[in-house]
C-alpha cells in the first residue's frame, strides 16, 4: 500500500520539479522555505504556493505525500521527516532543581531571623569571660557549676540551625514533588490529545506529538489545530484565529482564497483536509513560544502566585511579629530593670558579651513565638490535599486541569448538564420512522417501500453526512457494530444498513471532493445540507436537521408512490401533532430528511443560504433513540439528596427533553418545575428593548429544570444569571457540562466546567476545569464527593492548627513575661511546628471520602471557613490545654516533686519540670489530632480511622519520635529523661483530650450565640444597577474605537478581572474558593477582618490577588472566550421560524458593524445610537467590579 501511495507521485512529468535535487533529505522543500510560506496570509500566500509549487497538490508531491492516501505508515520515513522538519513538540522550560527550591525555601523571613539568632548565639557561646569578673556581672553563670554544661552553650544554636535545615528540606521536597505532580498531570493531558490523520488511505487517530510534516490531517468543527498546514479541500470552514491575531471574527478558509491554517487556532465551523507543513517549534505558535522562552508564562504565573501568597502570609506574620516584638521588649525591660535598677549593678565592658547573650536568648524566645504564630502549614495542607485528591480522582475518571476546581466542586449547588452522551449512552439508533405517508413503529422491511423513496433516502443519508462517520464491524464476536464519528449520523447510517442497503458504494461513486457545496451543521442552523451536481448538469441539495425547523422549509412531501405532493402549513401542524410529538414523548429525537432539485439553467447564489435551503421536499422523518445510561437516575438522586439541583440544557425538542428528564429523575411528578424552550426563556428574561434583566431571570431559574432548543448564548445566559443571582439564602455555585465548541463560553463562565473526554471537542476541553474521561454523569457525583472531602480536610487541619497556635502562642508569651523564659524552647517549638504543619497536614489532608459526605447540603459561596462548631472545638480544647499547662508551669514541681524550672539561669541544664510541660503539650496535640478528624460535632472520632493508613502511621510515628526526643534529646532539645510514672501522667492528660472532646460535643452549638463564625467579612456591599449603568456610560465613543492592539490588552484585563472576584468573595465571606489559594490569608482574616478595607481602598492590590475560579496561571494557557465571538451569527431570538416576522421585528437591532471591537460587541446587544454600552464582556463581567475606575483612565 505504501508503495502505491508513493508511486502515485512518479506519474507526474519531471518538468514540474526542477529544484528537487539539492533539497534536504530528498524532499522538495526546505524547513526555511516552509517556515517563510506559513508566515504569509490570504491571497499573498496563495500566490506564493502557485508560484513555487503550482498548486497544493504540487506542494504535496514535493513533500512526497498523496492528498488522498496520505503518508505511508513507514516508521523510517516518519523518523526521517522528524529529523529534517522537527517533532510536533514544544519542549517545556526546565523545572527548578532541588537546590533552587532549597534556596527559595530559605528566603522565608522567619527562618532568616532564626538563622541570624542561632549564629549570634553560637558565636557568643564560644566566648568565655574572665573568671574573676563573673561576680560583677551578676548571677549569669550561677547554676552552670558543671564545666561541661557551660561548654554546651553552643548546642542550642546548633540545634536551631539543624531544625531550620529540616524545615527547609521538607519545604523544598514538598515543592519539588508538587512540581513533579503538576508536570505529570500536564503530560497526561497532552497525551490525551489525539488528531485524525490519513495514512495509507486509512483514517487514524494519532497522538498530537506524532504528527509529521507531510501528514494529511482531517480537520473538523471543534478541533484545536496542533500544527500549521495548507488546506487541500474544505467545506464551509471557519477558523477562530483570535489566539494568534486578537481578531474575534471567524476567518473563512478555502483552498482557492485563504488556505493557510495555523496551529493553536480553533475550528468553529465546517470540515476539511490539510497537508501539515510546520510542526513544533517551527509552527507559528511554536515560534511565539520560542520567543517567550518556552513555557515562560508558566514561570511568571508561579512568581506572581508566589508574590500574592507572600502578601497574604505577611498579614498573618505581622500579627505574629507584633506578639514576638512585645515578648522581646517585655523580657529586655524586665532584665534591664532587675539587673541595673533593682540590683543596682553597673554595665561593665567585660560583661557586655554576657548581657548580649541574654538579649540573644530573649530574641530567640521572641522568634519562637513568631514561628508558632505563623501557620505556614496551611498552604502545605491545601497543596497536599488537592494533589492527593487529584491523583485519586484520576481513578474516578476525573482529569483535573485546574487544581482549585476540585475544591470548588464540593460547594456546587447547581449542575447544568447536557443531555446527549452525559445523561444518555450516546449510542443512537433509529427506532421509528415516517416514510411515504406511513408511520412505522419499527424499522420497515425494504420490500414495503417504493424503490424511488428508498433510493432517495439512502443517497440523502450517505452523501449528506461527514464522510469520516462510519459504521465498522464489531471488534468481538456478538458485540454491537462500532460507531465512529458523529453519533446522530451513525444512527442514520445504521438505518440504511437495517434497510439492507450500503452507504459505502454511494460514497465511492460520489467522493468527498466531488461535493459541490456543504453547509455544515452548527448550533444556529440546527441542520446540515450538501449539494451535488447531477449528470444532467443540474444540482441536487440534500438536507437533514431538527424536524420542526426543517419542516417549516418544506413545501412538498413524498407520498407512498414516491411522488411529491403539496405540504401546507396545516399539513405540517397535523404532522407535528400526529407524528413528531408522539415520537418526542417517547423520548426520541426527531430528524427530518429532505431534498431539492435545481435545474442547470437556474443555478442559485450559493452564499444565500436561506434562499437555497428552502422550498424543500420531505423524504422522511425518523425518531432516534438515545437510551438513558442505567446508572444516571441513581446518580441524580444522590445529587438531589446532597442538595444539588440538576438542570438539563439541551438543543433537543422540548418533548424529547422532558421525556428524558423524567426518565433520569430530573423532574418528578407532582413537583413545581418549569420546562422551557430557548425562545420562551428569552421572552421571559428580556425587557422590551431586548436586554436581559436579572430580576426577570431570578423569577425563572429557581424552578427551571429543563431548557430545550437552547442556543449556546442561552446556556451562557442561564449560567451567568444563576451565578450572579443573590436571591435565596445562599449564593449559587454552578457546575456545567459541555462537549461542543459552542459550550465554551458557558464552561468558562461556570464555577466548574466539565468537558467530555470522549465526545468533547478540543475547544470545550481547553475551556473546562475538569475533563470527564468516561463522559459519564456519575463521575460528576464522584467529583462532588472529592470536592467536599478537600473542603473538610482543610477545615480539619485548620481546627487542629488553630488550637495548637492559640495555645503555643499564649504559653510562650505569658510564660516568657512571667518567668522570663519560654516554657517551650526554640527547638521544641520547631518540632511542634513540624508536627502541626507538615505531619498534621499529611495526616488530615489524606482522609478518603465517604458516601456520608453526600448526605449534607452544600456550603455555598457565603459559608465561612470556620463554622461555629469548629470555633467551639478550637476554644474548648484551647481552654483545656492552657489550664493543664499553666497548672504544670506554676505548681507542677510540687505535684511531681521535682526542681522548679522557672527562673533558671543562662546555660543551665534542662529541667525535668519543663520537660514534663513539653511532653504533656505534645501528647495533648497528638490526641487532639484524633479529635480533629471530625468537624461537624460527630461523637465517634475513631470512625473509619483504619481506612487511612497515612494518619495511623503519622500519629504512631510522631509518638515514637517524641519518646526518642524526651529520653535521648538531652541538651539540644532542652529535655531530660522522664520516669515511667511521669510518662504515664503525660499520657493520662493527653487521653483526657478525647474525654474532653466528648464533653465539648455535648454542648449544643445553637446555645453558643456568642461564637462568631470566623472568616465572615463585612456585610454585602455590591454596586447597585444604577451605579453600574453610570459606569457603563463613562465609556465614551472615542474609547469604543480603540485599536486592535489594545483589545489584546483588554483581554489581559478581562482575565485579571476574573481574578477580582476575590474582592467580593472577601467582602462577603471566607468562602473557601479563593480563601485557601491566598495562602494563610484565611488566618489573617481570622485575626482581623480589617484587611478587607485595604482591599477596597487599593485597586491594584485587588488586581494582584488570585481569584476564585481560574487562577492567574491560566493567563496564557487557555483561549479567552468572549461571548461576542459567537454573537455575530447567533440570533437572539431563534429566527429560524420564517413565518414569525413579527417576533423578529421585536428583536433588538443587530450588533454594531464595528465587529473587531470587543469592547462593544457583547452578549447583550447595544441600543441603536450606542449611547449606553451594554455590560460588555471585557469591562465588567461581574457587578461591583473595581475596574470601573480603570475604564475611564483607559
UniProtKB/TrEMBL annotation:
Keyword Metal-binding included in the entry's annotation: yes
Enzyme nomenclature, EC number: 7.2.2.10
Statement: the UniProt record of this protein carries the keyword Transmembrane helix: yes
SUPFAM superfamilies per UniProt: Calcium ATPase, transduction domain A, Calcium ATPase, transmembrane domain M, HAD-like, Metal cation-transporting ATPase, ATP-binding domain N
Occurrences of domain Cation-transporting P-type ATPase N-terminal (ranges): 50-126
Gene3D superfamilies attached to this UniProt entry: Calcium-transporting ATPase, cytoplasmic domain N (3.40.1110.10), Calcium-transporting ATPase, cytoplasmic transduction domain A (2.70.150.10), Calcium-transporting ATPase, transmembrane domain (1.20.1110.10), HAD superfamily/HAD-like (3.40.50.1000)
Annotated stretches, region: Disordered: 1-23, 1140-1162, 1174-1194
UniProt-listed CDD domains: P-type_ATPase_Ca_PMCA-like
Pfam families reported in the protein's UniProt record: ATP_Ca_trans_C (PF12424), Cation_ATPase (PF13246), Cation_ATPase_C (PF00689), Cation_ATPase_N (PF00690), E1-E2_ATPase (PF00122), Hydrolase_3 (PF08282)
Regions of compositional bias (Polar residues) in chain numbering: 1174-1183
Keyword terms: ATP-binding, Calcium, Calcium transport, Calmodulin-binding, Cell membrane, Coiled coil, Ion transport, Magnesium, Membrane, Metal-binding, Nucleotide-binding, Phosphoprotein, Translocase, Transmembrane, Transmembrane helix, Transport
One of the protein's GO biological processes: regulation of cytosolic calcium ion concentration
GO cellular component labels: plasma membrane
Localization terms from the record: Cell membrane; Membrane
Enzyme class: translocase
Family: Belongs to the cation transport ATPase (P-type) (TC 3.A.3) family. Type IIB subfamily.
Role this protein plays: Catalyzes the hydrolysis of ATP coupled with the transport of calcium.
Protein name: Calcium-transporting ATPase
Organism: Suricata suricatta (Meerkat)
The gene coding this protein: ATP2B3
Amino acid at each position: 500500500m505504501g508503495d502505491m501511495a508513493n508511486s502515485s507521485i512518479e506519474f507526474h512529468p519531471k518538468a514540474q520539479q526542477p529544484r528537487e535535487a539539492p533539497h534536504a533529505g530528498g524532499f522538495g522543500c526546505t524547513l526555511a522555505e516552509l517556515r517563510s510560506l506559513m508566515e504569509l496570509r490570504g491571497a499573498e500566500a496563495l500566490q506564493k504556493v502557485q508560484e513555487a509549487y503550482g498548486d497544493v497538490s504540487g506542494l504535496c508531491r514535493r513533500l512526497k505525500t498523496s492528498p488522498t492516501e496520505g503518508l505511508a505508515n513507514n516508521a523510517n520515513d516518519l523518523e526521517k521527516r522528524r529529523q529534517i522538519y522537527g517533532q510536533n513538540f514544544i519542549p517545556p522550560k526546565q523545572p527548578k532543581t532541588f537546590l533552587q527550591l532549597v534556596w527559595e525555601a530559605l528566603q522565608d523571613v522567619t527562618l532568616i531571623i532564626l538563622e541570624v539568632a542561632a549564629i549570634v548565639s553560637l558565636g557568643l557561646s564560644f566566648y568565655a569571660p574572665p573568671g574573676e569578673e563573673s561576680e560583677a556581672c551578676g548571677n549569669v553563670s550561677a547554676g552552670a557549676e558543671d564545666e561541661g554544661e557551660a561548654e554546651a552553650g553552643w548546642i542550642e544554636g546548633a540545634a536551631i540551625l539543624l531544625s531550620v535545615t529540616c524545615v527547609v528540606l521538607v519545604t523544598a521536597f514538598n515543592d519539588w514533588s508538587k512540581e513533579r505532580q503538576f508536570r505529570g498531570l500536564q503530560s497526561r493531558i497532552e497525551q490525551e490529545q489525539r488528531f485524525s490523520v490519513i495514512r495509507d488511505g486509512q483514517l487514524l487517530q494519532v497522538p498530537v506529538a506524532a504528527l509529521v510534516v507531510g501528514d494529511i490531517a482531517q480537520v473538523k468543527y471543534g478541533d484545536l489545530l496542533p500544527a500549521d498546514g495548507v488546506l487541500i479541500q474544505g467545506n464551509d470552514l471557519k477558523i477562530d484565529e483570535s489566539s494568534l491575531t486578537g481578531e474575534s471574527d471567524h476567518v473563512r478558509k478555502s483552498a482557492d482564497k485563504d488556505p493557510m491554517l495555523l496551529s493553536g487556532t480553533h475550528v468553529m465551523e465546517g470540515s476539511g483536509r490539510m497537508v501539515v507543513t510546520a510542526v513544533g517549534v517551527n509552527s507559528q505558535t511554536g515560534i511565539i513560544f520560542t520567543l517567550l522562552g518556552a513555557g515562560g508564562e508558566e514561570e511568571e504565573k508561579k512568581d506572581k502566585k508566589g508574590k500574592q501568597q507572600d502578601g497574604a502570609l505577611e498579614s498573618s506574620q505581622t500579627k505574629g511579629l507584633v506578639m514576638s516584638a512585645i515578648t522581646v521588649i517585655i523580657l529586655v525591660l524586665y532584665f534591664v530593670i532587675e539587673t541595673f535598677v533593682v540590683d543596682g549593678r553597673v554595665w561593665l565592658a567585660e560583661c557586655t558579651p554576657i548581657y548580649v547573650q541574654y538579649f540573644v536568648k530573649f530574641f530567640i524566645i521572641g522568634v519562637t513565638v513568631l514561628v508558632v504564630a505563623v501557620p505556614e502549614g496551611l498552604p502545605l495542607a491545601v497543596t497536599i490535599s488537592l494533589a492527593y485528591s487529584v491523583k485519586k480522582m484520576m481513578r474516578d475518571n476525573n482529569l483535573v486541569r485546574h487544581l482549585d476546581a476540585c475544591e470548588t466542586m464540593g460547594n456546587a449547588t447547581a449542575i447544568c448538564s447536557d443531555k446527549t452522551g452525559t445523561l444518555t449512552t450516546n449510542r443512537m439508533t433509529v427506532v421509528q420512522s415516517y416514510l411515504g405517508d406511513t408511520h412505522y413503529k419499527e424499522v420497515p422491511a425494504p420490500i414495503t417501500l417504493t424503490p424511488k423513496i428508498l433510493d432517495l433516502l439512502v443517497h440523502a443519508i450517505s452523501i449528506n453526512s461527514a464522510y469520516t462517520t462510519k459504521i465498522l464491524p464489531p471488534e468481538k464476536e456478538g458485540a454491537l457494530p462500532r460507531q465512529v464519528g458523529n453519533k446522530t449520523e451513525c444512527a442514520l447510517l445504521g438505518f440504511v444498513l437495517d434497510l439492507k442497503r450500503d452507504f459505502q458504494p454511494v460514497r465511492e461513486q460520489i467522493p468527498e471532493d466531488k461535493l459541490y457545496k456543504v453547509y455544515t451543521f452548527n448550533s444556529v442552523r440546527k441542520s446540515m445540507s450538501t449539494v451535488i451536481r447531477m449528470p444532467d448538469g443540474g444540482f441536487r441539495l440534500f438536507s437533514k436537521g431538527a424536524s420542526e425547523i426543517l419542516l417549516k422549509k418544506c413545501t412538498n412531501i413524498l407520498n407512498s408512490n414516491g411522488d411529491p405532493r403539496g405540504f401546507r402549513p396545516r399539513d405540517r401542524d397535523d404532522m407535528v401533532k400526529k407524528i413528531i410529538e408522539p415520537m418526542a414523548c417517547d423520548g426520541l429525537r426527531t430528524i427530518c430528511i429532505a431534498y431539492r432539485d435545481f435545474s442547470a439553467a437556474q443555478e442559485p447564489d450559493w452564499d444565500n443560504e436561506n434562499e437555497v435551503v428552502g422550498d424543500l421536499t420531505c423524504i422522511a422523518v425518523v425518531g432516534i433513540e438515545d437510551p438513558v445510561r442505567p446508572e444516571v437516575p441513581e446518580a441524580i438522586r444522590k445529587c438531589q439528596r446532597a442538595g444539588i439541583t440538576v438542570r438539563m440544557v439541551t438543543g433537543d425538542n422540548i418533548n424529547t427533553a422532558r421525556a428524558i428528564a423524567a426518565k433520569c429523575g430530573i423532574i418528578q411528578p407532582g413537583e413545581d418545575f418549569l420546562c422551557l424552550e430557548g425562545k420562551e426563556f428569552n421572552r421571559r428574561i428580556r425587557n422590551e428593548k431586548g436586554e436581559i434583566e436579572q430580576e426577570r431571570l431570578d423569577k425563572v431559574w429557581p424552578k427551571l429544570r429543563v431548557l430545550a432548543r437552547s442556543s449556546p448564548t442561552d446556556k451562557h445566559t442561564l449560567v451567568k444569571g444563576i451565578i450572579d443571582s443573590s436571591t435565596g439564602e445562599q449564593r449559587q455555585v454552578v457546575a456545567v457540562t459541555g462537549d461542543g465548541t459552542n459550550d465554551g463560553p458557558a464552561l468558562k463562565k461556570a464555577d466548574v466546567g466539565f468537558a467530555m473526554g470522549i465526545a468533547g471537542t478540543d475547544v470545550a476541553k481547553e475551556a473546562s476545569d475538569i475533563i470527564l474521561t468516561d463522559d459519564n454523569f456519575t463521575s460528576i457525583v464522584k467529583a462532588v464527593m472529592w470536592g467536599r472531602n478537600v473542603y473538610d480536610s482543610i477545615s480539619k487541619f485548620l481546627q487542629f492548627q488553630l488550637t495548637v497556635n492559640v495555645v503555643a502562642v499564649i504559653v510562650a508569651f505569658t510564660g516568657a513575661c512571667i518567668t522570663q523564659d519560654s516554657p517551650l524552647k526554640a527547638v521544641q517549638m520547631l518540632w511542634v511546628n513540624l508536627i502541626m504543619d507538615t505531619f498534621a497536614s499529611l495526616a488530615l489532608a489524606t482522609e478518603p471520602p465517604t458516601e456520608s459526605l453526600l448526605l449534607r447540603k452544600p456550603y455555598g459561596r457565603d459559608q465561612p471557613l470556620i463554622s461555629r462548631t469548629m470555633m467551639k472545638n478550637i476554644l474548648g480544647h484551647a481552654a483545656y490545654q492552657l489550664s493543664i499547662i499553666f497548672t504544670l508551669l506554676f505548681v507542677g514541681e510540687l505535684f511531681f516533686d521535682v526542681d522548679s524550672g522557672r527562673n533558671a539561669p543562662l546555660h543551665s541544664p534542662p529541667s525535668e519540670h519543663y520537660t514534663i510541660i513539653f511532653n504533656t503539650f505534645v501528647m495533648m496535640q497528638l490526641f487532639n489530632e484524633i479529635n480533629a478528624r471530625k468537624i461537624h460535632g460527630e461523637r465517634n472520632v475513631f470512625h473509619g480511622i483504619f481506612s487511612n493508613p497515612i494518619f495511623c502511621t503519622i500519629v504512631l510515628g510522631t509518638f515514637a519520635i517524641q519518646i526518642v526526643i524526651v529520653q535521648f534529646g538531652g541538651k539540644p532539645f532542652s529535655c531530660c529523661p522522664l520516669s515511667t510514672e511521669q510518662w504515664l501522667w503525660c499520657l493520662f492528660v493527653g487521653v483526657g483530650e478525647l474525654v474532653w472532646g466528648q464533653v465539648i460535643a455535648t454542648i449544643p452549638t445553637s446555645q453558643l450565640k456568642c461564637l462568631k463564625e470566623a472568616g465572615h467579612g463585612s456585610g454585602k456591599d455590591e454596586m447597585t444597577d444604577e451605579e453600574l449603568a453610570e459606569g457603563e456610560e463613562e465609556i465614551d465613543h472615542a474609547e469604543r474605537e480603540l485599536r486592535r492592539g489594545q483589545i489584546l490588552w483588554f483581554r489581559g484585563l478581562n482575565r485579571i478581572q476574573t481574578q477580582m472576584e476575590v474582592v467580593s468573595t472577601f467582602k462577603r465571606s471566607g468562602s473557601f474558593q479563593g480563601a485557601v489559594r491566598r495562602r494563610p490569608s484565611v488566618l489573617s482574616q481570622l485575626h482581623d477582618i480589617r484587611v478587607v478595607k485595604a482591599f477596597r481602598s487599593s485597586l491594584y492590590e485587588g488586581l494582584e490577588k488570585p481569584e476564585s475560579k481560574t487562577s492567574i496561571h491560566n493567563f496564557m494557557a487557555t483561549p479567552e472566550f468572549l461571548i461576542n465571538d459567537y454573537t455575530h451569527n447567533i440570533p437572539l431570538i431563534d429566527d429560524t421560524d420564517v413565518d414569525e416576522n413579527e417576533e423578529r421585528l421585536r428583536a433588538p437591532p443587530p450588533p454594531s458593524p464595528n465587529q473587531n471591537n470587543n469592547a462593544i460587541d457583547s452578549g447583550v446587544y447595544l441600543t441603536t445610537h450606542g449611547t449606553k454600552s451594554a455590560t460588555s464582556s471585557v469591562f465588567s463581567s461581574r457587578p461591583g467590579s473595581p475596574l470601573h475606575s480603570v475604564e475611564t483612565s483607559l
